[in-house]
Amino acid sequence: MNTPILTVAPAGTWKLDSIHSRVDFEVRYLAGTFKGEFHEIGAELSVEAERASLEGAANVARVDIKDENLSAHLQSPDFLDAERHPELRFAARDLRLDGGKVSVDGELTIKGVTKSVAVTGTVTAPIADPYGNERIGLSLTAKIDRTDFGVDWNNPLPSGEPALANDVTIFAGLQFVRPGGETSE
Question: In angstroms, rounded to a whole number, what is the distance separating the alpha carbons of residues 33 and 47?
């Protein structure tokens, strides 16, 4: 049985409040978890009747992982190749709702390779903010295999096991606002 497509938010175009939004990732590395954040992101949510679409991008050169040398390595051809592929892109049509849960089948582009990804999460009901705007929030998660996108670098451990896992989890905490008012504090 297909989940009905319900209205995510009132019809119109919702702009990302980038000050109050973030896109993070994590991957198992050595004996723990390696985490990072993209500091420059953009997105737009379009709602028409019972259909909603989401498009977004992250600037690869603005990835932050707490170490300049490692940030530079992530931007190199070994990983995201920022010079030839300056953005990660995501596009999805038909966001599906079941209560406050949202699911999306979208297209993710990393390093010039586009693959289908399943994204799940939650959506908040629209609220009025103190500045006269209407807002909604989306909290989304996707798990991908980085090697599907040509991100193959690794460093074997003495045991022969890879130091860096292939599975990467991407988290997006997004706030959208109707245009026309202030979008930050």
Answer: 36
Torsional class of 181: left (φ above 0), alpha (ψ -120 to 50), beta (otherwise)? beta
Instruction: Give Cα separations from 142 to 12, 105, 165, 167 (angstroms).
Output: 26, 10, 16, 10
State the Rg of the chain over Cα. 18
For residue 127, the tally of other CB atoms under 10 A from its CB is 10
Q: Which two tokens stand for residue 12?
A: 């119109």
Using left for φ > 0, alpha for ψ between -120 and 50, and beta otherwise, residue 166 falls in alpha
Q: Which structure tokens are listed for 46?
A: 């379009």
Q: Which residues contact 1 (CB under 8 A, 6 or more apart)?
A: none
H helix and E strand count, the chain: 1, 13
pTM above 0.70?
yes
Structure confidence by residue, pLDDT tens digits, 16-68 = 999 999 999 999 999 999 999 999 999 999 988 778 899 999 999 999 888 88
Q: What's the CA gap between 101 and 124, in Å, rounded?
A: 9
